[in-house]
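subagent[fold] <- orchestrator: predict structure for attached chain, return tokens only, no commentary.
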Amino acid sequence: MSNSETKNQPVQEIRMGLIKAVVWANPTKSNGIMHNVTLSRIYRDTNGDWQETQSLGRNDLLLAAKVLDAAHTFICRKEQEREAPADEAATSQN
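subagent[fold] -> orchestrator:
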């Protein structure tokens, strides 16, 4: 397997305008999953090539908050999906 095949891939990308949040799922030692989020702003450089920066301006902040809220909602739903089978099994045994 090559390095590109074994590299961790994002589980979700949320983009609004030029603000982007990427959600990563990382396994924990206890066989759980911990989600992390990277936030960036995309822009075109002087050559017209797309670049990313973690620096945000005043006008980016409200949109960044909305993107982070969407990332939070995505992660909470994923956690609920993981917990649901255990909850259903416990309920069906009672």
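orchestrator: received. Logging for downstream: The radius of gyration is 18 Å. The chain has a mean pLDDT of 88.
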